[in-house]
TrEMBL record:
GO terms for molecular function: acyltransferase activity, transferring groups other than amino-acyl groups. PANTHER family: BLL4206 PROTEIN (PTHR47237:SF2), SLL0310 PROTEIN (PTHR47237). It comes from Bosea spartocytisi. The lineage of its organism: Bacteria, Pseudomonadati, Pseudomonadota, Alphaproteobacteria, Hyphomicrobiales. PROSITE patterns: GNAT. This is GNAT family N-acetyltransferase. It comes from the Bacteria. Residues 5-148 form the N-acetyltransferase domain.
Amino acid sequence: MQQSVRLKSFELFAQDIDGIDVNLLHALSTSVGWPHRPKDWEMLRRAGKGIVAVDGIGRVFGSAMWFPHGDDFATIGLVITSPRTQAQGNGRWLMERVFAECGGRHLSLNATRAAYALYRSLAFVDEGIVHLHQGKVSAALPSLPRLNGHFEELAPGRLAEIAALDLAAFGVDRLPLLELLAEQASIRVLRRDGVAVGYSMCRAFGQGHVIGPLVASNDDDAIHLAAVHLEAFGGRFMRVDTRSTGAFAAFLRRNGLSVTDTVTTMSKGRRFLNEKPGEPMVFGLAGHALG
Ligand SMILES: CC(C)(COP(=O)(O)OP(=O)(O)OC[C@H]1O[C@@H](n2cnc3c(N)ncnc32)[C@H](O)[C@@H]1OP(=O)(O)O)[C@@H](O)C(=O)NCCC(=O)NCCS
């Protein structure tokens, strides 16, 4: 009897992600070691659009999503191909489908090491490095800088109060996304003289909680906007994705959130990042896929 058998190769078809059983998407992300829960996939599906690569009997072998903000910009994420099908053209095919769906939009994404060469070959250029800080939060917070302003909790219905601040930091109006995140987030606003100068959201994600978006104009404000959530999470798992490498990042490390990975922020078309010292900027990302 033969000791091996060569199976016939199979064909993959693109399907809208909305029609796919969320447990199949969860199995796909788990196969590449990602922490997304089925609930996280559900939220991402509501936030954006996407396609999956399925075979003739509905098994899922890949995904790619995009999150449009207005008519001329989108972020791309959740680009995954199952390990068994990698390095055979599946990822490139999914990306080309996404380009067709996104029309002429300017694009941005956060590239893992595995995907970097693919995106470079698709004309994405580097803009910055995102550091993934995560771990169990220290039992007691280290001493904080002096608080300049006061905190308020923001109800989801009052997001208009931070819309201008977020636009200044992110560069594109993403209020519909913030509304969606706010459904499951605790939101704090930092005000000085009545004016919102920073905000942060904290929500369940993956194996714990994530702080993001976090928008502030300087490290001290950003530290307070993280601390206001961290103080309730001693001993629990938290994550912050940041491009900051200064005092804010040092504060996260002192709290038990060490850097476990990095990804590269890339863009295609108009430059995406436009940070200026002293002006509002994104200290904590909403999520890798969300920019
Ligand atoms: C990144 C990923 C989606 C690529 O998918 P894929 O199906 O392997 O992609 P393709 O087969 O279309 O390969 C595209 C390019 O990637 C590069 N590449 C893929 N596999 C490679 C390997 N094993 N070694 C070196 N380069 C490789 C090549 O540059 C290839 O270019 P080519 O088309 O000229 O050969 C896949 O590796 C993956 O899911 N990784 C884990 C999750 C992840 O990191 N996703 C990216 C999120 S930003």
